[in-house]
Amino acid sequence: MHITGIIITGIGTLFLFLGSLGIFRLPDVYNRLQAGTKCTTLGAFFTVIGVGIIEPSWFWKTLIIAFFILLTNPISNHALGRASLKSGVPLCDRSVVDKSKDFDQYKSKAE
Q1: Between these two residues, 58 and 100, which has the higher pLDDT value?
Q2: Which of 6, 38, 67, 96 has the greatest number of beta carbons closer than 10 A?
Q3: 22-81 per-position pLDDT tens digit
Q4: Cβ(51)–Cβ(66) under 8 Å?
Q5: What is the 3-state secondary structure (H, E, C) of the chain?
Q6: Which residues neighbour 41 within 8 Å (Cβ) at sequence distance 6 or greater?
Q7: Which residues lie below 8 Å from residue 56, measured CB to CB, with a gap of 6+?
């Protein structure tokens, strides 16, 4: 079980590294949020579960922590992206698709 926990923790750290690389390399806040959300959610999940497998007495506590990470991280990043959109943060000039215009269309119908 110890080796399995170390492998799962290693997978988690790999995801965290790739997420930080994506945040560093991507051009605008929306792309960075995409990289940050997926990689940090999976990275933190695997790292915490790996620690729970390495130390079996902590497993249930780490499982609860991992559940909260899976629940709250995507929601908080969605809120950050929505706040960026509402405050007028522009897309990168290399962006091909802008789905935010669809939201403006629905907003005007509701008012």
Answers
A1: 58
A2: 38
A3: 888 888 888 888 888 888 899 999 999 999 999 999 999 999 999 999 999 989 988 888
A4: no
A5: CHHHHHHHHHHHHHHHHHHHHHHHHCCCHHHHHHHHHHHHHHHHHHHHHHHHHHCHHHHHHHHHHHHHHHHHHHHHHHHHHHHHHHCCCCCCCCCCCCCHHHHHHHHHHHC
A6: 69, 70, 73, 74
A7: 1
